[in-house]
Specification:
Blueprint: H1 2-15, H2 18-36, H3 41-49, H4 58-82, H5 92-103, H6 107-141, H7 145-158, H8 167-181, E1 184-185, E2 192-193, H9 208-227, H10 244-254, H11 258-272, H12 279-293, H13 306-321, H14 323-328, H15 335-346, H16 355-358, H17 360-383, H18 385-392, H19 396-412, H20 418-436, H21 442-464, H22 471-474, H23 478-505
Helix pairs in contact: 1-17, 2-4, 2-17, 3-4, 3-15, 4-5, 4-6, 4-13, 4-15, 4-17, 5-6, 5-13, 6-10, 6-11, 6-13, 6-17, 6-18, 7-12, 7-21, 7-23, 8-21, 9-19, 9-20, 11-12, 11-13, 12-13, 19-20
C-alpha cells in the first residue's frame, strides 16, 4: 500500500509539469466538445488527434489522449440531454431520462447530475485501478467466450423491464433489434445474411449509432414538432434557468441517488476491464439495474434522476476500467483503448506486465493524470452549464433544423456512406411511429448493441463444448452470472403471474 502511494506521488510530479498539465486541460476541453458532437465520440476524436501527439514526449502524448477519452465520456451526455441526440453509443442510456428532464425545464438538474455522477464514477474507478490492477487483470484474462455470453445475457435481462409494463411489446422490440444486429456477413461461414433487396450498403451491417441517432434524434425531433406545432415557435425550455439556489437544491437532490451512482461505478468498472466489452454495455446494464432496484421504477423514461446518474457513473468508470487490460495485458478493453495501444507501440512502449517495471514513470504518470483529468472535466462541464442552457432556450423553429443537420452529420461520420444517412432517416420515421403506437424504443436500440457481442460469444462457446449448453453453468465465472441472468430474465414473468394470482384470490 505504502509503495503504491509512493509511486502515485511520483506520478503526480509528472502530471504537475507545466506542459503535461496544459495537455490534460486541453485534452479534457477537446474531449468534452468531441463527445458532445453527434457521430464523433472518443474513438474518432482520439484517432483524429493521434498525429498531433508526435510533437510531445510519449508520456505527455498518452496523457493528452487519455484526457480526451475522459472528456468525451463527460461530453456525450451534453447532446443526449440538450437535443436528444446521443453523442456516442456510451451516452444512449443517458438520453432515456436526461432528455425528458430537459423538456420539463430541468436541463440544469440533468446536466449537473451527469457531471457529478461522472466524477464519482471516475473517482471510484481510478482508485480501484490504482490499488487493484494485478488481481483484476487476472480476472479479465480468464474471461472467455462463455463468460462474455453470460454477461451479455445478464445485460439483456436487466433491460427486459425497460419497456414499461407491457412485457410482450418489450420482447417484440428486443427481437427487432436482434434481427437488425444480424444484418451483414455471417461470422462463421462468411455468407451474407439479411441483405435486404440485395442492397450492397447492408453488407457492412447496421451501425448502432445510425439506429440511435435516427430514433432518438430525428424521431424525437418529429415527435417534438408535432407536440409544439401550435407553440408559435417558442423555446420549449424557456423556464430552464441556472441560479445558485437551484444548483444547491439540485445537489441536495443528487444525494438521494447515491446508491445508483455507486452501483453504476462498480458495475461499469468491472464491465470495462473485460476485453472488447467497452463502456456501452456497462452503461446499459447500470440503467437496467437502477430501474430494477428503484422504489419508483415507473418514473424511468419520464425524467428519473437515477436514470441519468447510473449510466453516467458507469460509462466513466468503464473508460478507466478499459485501460487496465491495455496496460497490464496488452489487450484493449474498448475501441478507443485499441487506438491508444497502437500509439503506445508507435512510441516504443510495449504494453504488458513488464510495462509497470520497465517504465514506472510513464505508467504512474498516466494513472495520476486520470485523477487530474477527472477533476478538470467536471469543473469545465459544470462551468459551461449556463452556456448549454442558453442553447436550449433557442426557439424550436431554429433548433429543429440544427438538430436535423447534426443528425445527418452524425449519421454520415461513422461510415461516410449515404446509404447510412437514408437508413437513419427511415429509422427516425419508424421511431416516431413506434412512439405513436406506444412501443418501447430503448430495448430495440440496446439489442442492436449487445447482439453483435452476444452472438459470436454464444457460437464460439458451443463450438468449444460440441454444442452443449452446460459450458455456461460449469465454469467458475460464467455459472453464477448465468444464474443471475436467468433470475432477472424471468422476474417480470413471475411478477405478472404473482399479480394475477393475488387478484384472483383477493
Amino acid at each position: 500500500m505504502l509503495e503504491t502511494l509512493g509511486l502515485l506521488a511520483n506520478g503526480f510530479t509528472v502530471v504537475f509539469e507545466p506542459q503535461n498539465l496544459m495537455l490534460i486541460i486541453a485534452g479534457c476541453a477537446l474531449g468534452i466538445f468531441i463527445g458532445a458532437m453527434p457521430g464523433l465520440g472518443s474513438v474518432n476524436g482520439v484517432a483524429i488527434l493521434l498525429p498531433l501527439t508526435f510533437l510531445v514526449p510519449p508520456t505527455g502524448a498518452i496523457i493528452f489522449l487519455a484526457a480526451i477519452y475522459y472528456g468525451a465520456m463527460y461530453g456525450g451526455a451534453i447532446s443526449s440531454i440538450m437535443l436528444g441526440i446521443p453523442g456516442a453509443s456510451t451516452a444512449v442510456a443517458t438520453t432515456f431520462d436526461g432528455r425528458p428532464l430537459a423538456k420539463q425545464g430541468m436541463a440544469d438538474k440533468a446536466l449537473t447530475a451527469a457531471a457529478v455522477a461522472s466524477f464519482v464514477g471516475g473517482s471510484i474507478s481510478v482508485v480501484l485501478f490504482t490499488f487493484f490492477a494485478p488481481p483484476l487483470a487476472h480476472v479479465a484474462l480468464v474471461f472467455g467466450a462463455p463468460e462474455e455470453f453470460a454477461l451479455m445475457l445478464l445485460a439483456f435481462a436487466t433491460f427486459v423491464g425497460l419497456g414499461g409494463d407491457d412485457l410482450f411489446k418489450t420482447l417484440f422490440s428486443i427481437s427487432i433489434g436482434l434481427v437488425l444486429s444480424a444484418v451483414g456477413f455471417d461470422i462463421i461461414s462468411g455468407e451474407p445474411r439479411l441483405v435486404l433487396w440485395d442492397i450492397t450498403g447492408f453488407l457492412h451491417g447496421i451501425n448502432f449509432l445510425i439506429l440511435a441517432i435516427g430514433i432518438y434524434g430525428i424521431g424525437e425531433m418529429l415527435w417534438t414538432v408535432e407536440e409544439h406545432r401550435l407553440g408559435g415557435g417558442k423555446s420549449m425550455l424557456s423556464d430552464a434557468t441556472v441560479t445558485v439556489k437551484r444548483t444547491l437544491a439540485n445537489l441536495r437532490e443528487l444525494m438521494t441517488t447515491w446508491k445508483s451512482i455507486v452501483m453504476g461505478s462498480f458495475l461499469g468498472y468491472f464491465v470495462g476491464i473485460l476485453p472488447a466489452a467497452g463502456a456501452t454495455p456497462g452503461s446499459l446494464m447500470a440503467y437496467g439495474i437502477a430501474k430494477q432496484i428503484s422504489k419508483n421504477p415507473e418514473k424511468f423514461g419520464h425524467g428519473a434522476l437515477d436514470g441519468v446518474c447510473a449510466p453516467e457513473a458507469a460509462n466513466n468508470a468503464a473508460s478507466t476500467g478499459s485501460m487496465l487490460p491495455m496496460l497490464t495485458l496488452g489487450i484493449p478493453g474498448s475501441p478507443t483503448t485499441a487506438i491508444l495501444l497502437g500509439g503506445m507501440v508507435i512510441w516504443g512502449l510495449e504494453p504488458g506486465p513488464r510495462l509497470f517495471v520497465d517504465h514506472p514513470d510513464f505508467v504512474w504518470g498516466l494513472i495520476a493524470s486520470l485523477y487530474a483529468a477527472n477533476l478538470f472535466s467536471v469543473l469545465i462541464n459544470v462551468a459551461f452549464i449556463p452556456v448549454f442552457i442558453r442553447i436550449l432556450k433557442t426557439p424550436f423553429t431554429i433548433l429543429a433544423p440544427i438538430i436535423f443537420i447534426l443528425c445527418l452529420i452524425g449519421g454520415y461520420a461513422p461510415t461516410q456512406s449515404l446509404h447510412d444517412v437514408w437508413l437513419m432517416v427511415i429509422f427516425g420515421i419508424v421511431g416516431y411511429l413506434m412512439r405513436k403506437l406506444d412501443y418501447p424504443m430503448a430495448p430495440a436500440v440496446l439489442a442492436i448493441v449487445l447482439g453483435p457481442l452476444a452472438e459470436p460469444a454464444l457460437r464460439q462457446s458451443l463450438i468449444i463444448s460440441d454444442g452443449s449448453f452446460s459450458i455456461f453453468f460449469t465454469r467458475t465465472y460464467s455459472g453464477p452470472i448465468m444464474v443471475a441472468a436467468l433470475i432477472f430474465l424471468f422476474l417480470p414473468l413471475i411478477k405478472i403471474v404473482y399479480v394475477k394470482l393475488r387478484k384472483q384470490y383477493a
